[in-house]
Amino acid sequence: MAGNGFPKVHDAVTVGLGDLRAGTVPAGALEEAFGPTSLGIIIVKDLPPEFLELRGRLLLAASQIAKLPAEDLKSLECPSAKWLVGWSCGKETLKDGKYDTLKGSYYINCAFYKDPSLTAAQPHPDTNFPEYTHPNIWPSETTHSSLSGFKATAEALCSLIIDTAALVARACDRYACESVEGYRDGYLEHVVRTSTTTKARLLHYFPAPPTPPARSSPTPGSVAAITDQGAMDGENDDWCATHVDHGCLTGLTSAMYLDDENSTPQDELFLPPDSAAGLYIRSRVGTTVKVSIPRDCLAFQTGEALELITRGRFRAVPHFVRGVREGGGRVARNTLAVFTQPNLYEMVDERRDFATFAKEVVDRNH
Predict the structure, then answer these.
(1) CA 194 from centre of chain
(2) Which residues contact 75 (CB under 8 A, 6 or more apart)?
(3) Which of 218, 309, 310, 341 could form a disulfide with 225 if both were Cys (CB 3.0 to 4.6 A apart)?
(4) Which H, E and C letters describe 245-299, residue by residue?
(5) In angstroms, rounded to a whole number, what is the distance separating the alpha carbons of residues 43 and 34?
(6) What secondary structure letter does DSSP report for 92?
(7) Are strands 249-253 and 298-302 parallel, antiparallel or unpaired?
């Protein structure tokens, strides 16, 4: 453990895109990434050459959107979808019931990956679920010249991430077929390639306050209480509270750190001024580790729906984000998460389809 109480940066399992395509990732690497003593995360290197430019443009746009006038941001909100389409800030509740105002999100439905004519998930036959079926909302690129090309960039980067997620899913399927009794061969790759509910979340973390806001203790029995009590007691999850993703496989870019005092930020900080800031994961064996994603790579971690579908053999990854507290300046953090998820009508356990399960999660958090 580091002297400040935080563990050292953990080297997550890294594989090449070529090995994923060829199906030559060693079984030992998959076991180390997703097995019973793992972090449940894998990093993919050697991405297509356009990745870095797309990442830079889209993550910078997160700051540009967050700085739009309040009336423009309001026009990008969708209350009927519980702010899970378009812009959202201060609408999500944290573990203590308070609203999260330390980050803004721009939600994008990725149904266009399956069919370019789709702007939202295909409706559920029995459930009204605008959180997934409301069409995407895009900022005006003529009114806001700084956001020129935003939609095209977002769709291109999300598609690249989903393409890569499908290859990671194929490797997960290979591992699961050998280690999970009754696992349906090809299941996760099928979900990634055919779902219309995959959703992207472009995140802008506002500079953290000098002193983290006081929060009450997590409810006993919650994910936070069970998996990360030490982190909760230390109030380390000030930028993003400890949680698990509710999809199957989440694709993550590395974070972009920017000086928020610059009204038109152009230069990405190579490292945050506070070395303790960043993404933390609670491992399968209960150890909290800081995970660093290289700028030219993607990371993929497992979520709650996959845990349910595999009856716990693939476990969801509890994680949180610690803000920048030391080093001076007002530093913001931007990143992109793409949540691959089953179609609304597909079952996640014996009694619930994904629409029912996801609705429970949404109602809990909004």
Answers:
(1) 19
(2) none
(3) 218
(4) CCCCEEEEECCEEEECCCCCCCCCECCCCCCCCEEEEECCCCCEEEECCCCCCEE
(5) 12
(6) S
(7) antiparallel
Would you call 350 helix, strand, or coil by DSSP? coil
DSSP code for 213: P
* Dist CA 330 CA 61 (whole Å): 18
The tokens describing 25, both together, are 């990732």
Of 278, 281, 279, nearest in space to 223 by CA: 281
Instruction: Return d(Cα 283, Cα 289) in angstroms, integer.
Output: 7
Q: Is the pTM of this model over 0.90?
A: no
Q: Do 15 and 43 form a contact (C-beta atoms < 8 A)?
A: yes
> For the purposes of burial, counting CB atoms within 10 Å of the CB of 37, is it exposed (0-12), middle (13-18) or buried (19 or more)?
exposed
CB atoms within 10 A of CB 149: 12
151 phi and psi angles, rounded to 5 deg: -60, -45
Beta bridge partners of 279: 291, 321
- 1 contacts: CB under 8 Å, gap ≥ 6: 7, 8
State the Cα–Cα distance between residues 300 and 254, nearest whole angstrom. 11
Which residues touch 162 (CB under 8 Å, ≥6 apart)? 110, 113, 192, 198, 251, 338, 340
At which residue do the structure tokens 């930020």 appear? 265
9-10 and 288-291 as β-strands: parallel, antiparallel, unpaired?
A: parallel
Q: Which residues pair with 10 in a beta bridge?
A: 291
pLDDT tens for each residue of the chain, 366 residues long: 444 444 445 578 999 999 999 999 998 898 888 887 788 899 999 999 999 999 999 999 999 999 999 999 999 999 999 999 999 998 876 666 667 788 899 999 999 999 999 999 988 877 788 999 999 999 999 999 989 999 999 999 999 999 999 999 999 998 888 887 888 899 999 999 999 999 999 999 888 666 544 433 333 222 222 233 444 334 555 555 677 888 899 999 999 988 877 645 467 888 777 777 888 888 777 788 888 899 999 999 988 888 888 777 788 888 787 777 665 568 888 999 999 999 999 888 888 988 888 888 887 765
d(CA 259, CA 172) in angstroms, rounded, equals: 38
